[in-house]
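Let's see one such:

===
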Amino acid sequence: MLALVCAAAVTGKLRDRSARAEFGAMLAAVGVPGALRMPAAGALLGGEVAVAGLSLVPATARLGAVIAFALFGGLTLGVAHVVRSGSRTRCACFGRAKEVLGWRHVARNAALTAAAVAAVALPAAGPGRPADLVAATAVAAIGAIAVVLLDDVVSILRADRP
């Protein structure tokens, strides 16, 4: 799940010029100084790429989970700070900046941090049966889709119904 979420985040942020601009605007809005914006963007994207790649290889999966813990733990604290400050910064976490960062984004990042802790703490799984692999992959995909589409789901649930 962590690999899929990070792959979606990188893809969304880099998909086109508009997404890259929104990502840069989000970094500026949260207070990253101009001179540090490119290094900060590179570090965040590099962390997401590392998690996406390392988490899929059994020999490096634990390292990927440790990086995910640092990444999502930092994002949880950073987004909480932005929300507490009252900033109306839009979330460009997955490349589109429609919703203002809020406590649901803090909760989402905290849940991803907890998933990373679980991935580090739990014993590595063996090869397993093919059916188990299919089930685990399906659960991971559903979890990742829920994380990536969180703002869309909240928007649908909040919509006024006739």
